[in-house]
């Protein structure tokens, strides 16, 4: 690996292009290094994972709206078009709109993979735009694997080095560049073209974090989908010889100077050296539960504490429940956010999946977590649940914050310590470092678990034959020709898609 020092330069300094971070990312993307078998296997897992969570969201309003928008944009003259989850493989739309519709479907339930470091991310958001372009231009499965490996590599490397959230910039600002880089690898573009695409993608995908604050809206799922769409468009413009703001990261009016840490600060971004394999996908992890990642381990802990002492689920027997955890968990999904909506029984699903007090209360009472039932309005409105929910608070603990930011994978933690105080004065204390499904957890996810997750989420949505067809095809990804890649989608029975009428708009 090679460390790149990234800082602001004045225009008078004339930072050479090859010393700019966007160029260095482009060089990684343009490097034709082979993809290892281990990385290829994980790419297949994540393609299955994305399709699983997208399938489960096909009838949800944001996905229906995005799909309707995509259907209004038929394939352009430059290729064959790309597929949209839920529709037949013969239905094609322009690739940037396929990236939009499929990206929304993948992200809607907050149920796919994650990587957390200096910044937060869902690297699986790279897959919809890369796959859409591959289908449009007739790429094979081996090229898709290479493109996805790059998308994950760049996003993880940026997330490790550059914090966006502390400046209230949404994490999709790392997704635009990573998706553009992944598409560049997919198509075998040269460094210059990829460099221009990265600059344009970053410039157009910086936005504030209000999408994940207060009353969280349907835009939460759409923000990464838009970043993927804009990355496709940026690559198209760059391929046509159009240039981008430069230097996009280091310029005196650039991203670092005015949106991030300012002109006096610097970052160390570690990227693969020339000829070095792209392995970052192996550092990422998926979700067993449909909730924000910091809730994963705490859902598992709640289930365990319920088994240990059933009194934890009864608000009449509980005085307080305090979750001692990291800065991020406390301030983003905990009581440290200061968001009253996190304790509101009428809050949106998007808000509730970012409320650890709600999630922990329901997991304590139900002993499980379900992507639909646990968020149902009637479930959130139960009086006994609200009583328990309001007794749950979070506190930042310096040690859990330190472990959250640790670069040692054996020490890195996303959980916390929970102290329950009962009305009789007794207490129950337990803690958990990582989710059961984490690679270091009690039940790490492997291919068997990814396949089981797909079957579970597709049950009642797809026909059994369609489930088996997709799983067989996805597991052959590296060997697929252009026709096979074009079939890498799921087709729902008409009744599923007709259950929610498509809304009208401009298109």
Automatic annotation (TrEMBL):
Lineage, top ranks: Bacteria, Bacillati, Actinomycetota, Actinomycetes, Propionibacteriales
Sequence similarity: Belongs to the PrpD family.
MmgE/PrpD C-terminal domain location, by residue?
Answer: 289-476
Q: Where is this region: Disordered?
A: 329-348
The chain positions of domain MmgE/PrpD N-terminal read: 19-264
Q: What is this protein called?
A: MmgE/PrpD family protein
> Which source organism?
Microlunatus ginsengisoli
């Amino acid at each position: 690996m090679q460390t790149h020092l990234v800082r602001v330069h004045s225009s008078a300094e004339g930072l050479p292009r090859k010393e700019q971070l966007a160029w260095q990312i482009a060089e990684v993307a343009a490097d034709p290094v082979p993809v290892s078998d281990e990385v290829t296997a994980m790419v297949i897992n994540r393609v299955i994972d994305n399709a699983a969570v997208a399938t489960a969201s096909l009838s949800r309003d944001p996905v229906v709206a995005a799909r309707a928008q995509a259907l209004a944009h038929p394939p352009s003259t430059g290729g064959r078009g790309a597929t949209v989850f839920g529709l037949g493989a013969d239905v094609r739309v322009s690739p940037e709109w396929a990236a939009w519709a499929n990206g929304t479907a993948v992200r809607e339930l907050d149920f796919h993979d994650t990587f957390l470091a200096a910044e937060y991310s869902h690297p699986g958001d790279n897959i919809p735009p890369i796959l859409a372009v591959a289908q449009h231009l007739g790429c094979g499965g081996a090229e898709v694997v290479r493109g996805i490996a790059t998308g994950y590599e760049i996003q993880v490397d940026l997330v490790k080095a550059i914090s966006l959230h502390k400046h209230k910039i949404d994490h999709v600002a790392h997704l635009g560049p990573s998706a553009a880089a992944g598409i560049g690898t997919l198509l075998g573009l040269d460094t210059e073209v990829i460099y221009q695409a990265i600059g344009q993608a970053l410039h157009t995908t910086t936005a504030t974090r209000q999408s994940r604050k207060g009353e969280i809206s349907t835009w939460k799922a759409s923000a990464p989908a838009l970043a993927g769409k804009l990355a496709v468009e940026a690559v198209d413009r760059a391929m046509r010889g159009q240039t981008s703001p430069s230097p996009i990261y280091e310029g005196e009016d650039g991203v670092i100077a005015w949106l991030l840490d300012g002109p006096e600060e610097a970052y160390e971004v570690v990227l693969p050296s020339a000829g070095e394999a792209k392995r970052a996908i192996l550092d990422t992890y998926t979700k067993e539960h449909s909730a924000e990642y910091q809730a994963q381990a705490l859902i598992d802990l709640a289930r365990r504490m319920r088994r240990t002492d059933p009194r934890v689920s009864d608000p009449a027997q509980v005085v307080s429940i305090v979750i001692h955890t990291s800065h991020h968990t406390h301030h983003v999904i905990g009581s440290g956010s200061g968001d009253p909506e996190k304790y509101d029984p009428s809050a949106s699903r998007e808000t509730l999946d970012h409320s650890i007090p709600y999630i922990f209360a329901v997991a304590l009472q139900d002993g499980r977590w379900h992507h639909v039932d646990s968020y149902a309005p009637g479930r959130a409105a139960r009086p006994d649940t609200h009583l328990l929910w309001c007794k749950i608070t979070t506190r930042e603990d310096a040690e859990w914050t330190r472990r959250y930011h640790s670069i040692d994978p054996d020490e890195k933690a996303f959980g916390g310590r929970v102290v329950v105080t009962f009305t009789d004065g007794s207490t129950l204390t337990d803690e958990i470092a990582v989710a059961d499904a984490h690679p270091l957890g009690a039940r790490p996810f492997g291919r068997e678990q990814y396949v089981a997750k797909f079957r579970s989420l597709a049950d009642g949505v797809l026909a059994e034959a369609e489930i088996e067809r997709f799983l067989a095809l996805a597991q052959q990804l590296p060997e697929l020709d252009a026709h096979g890649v074009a079939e890498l989608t799921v087709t729902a029975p008409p009744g599923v898609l007709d259950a929610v009428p498509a809304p009208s708009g401009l298109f």
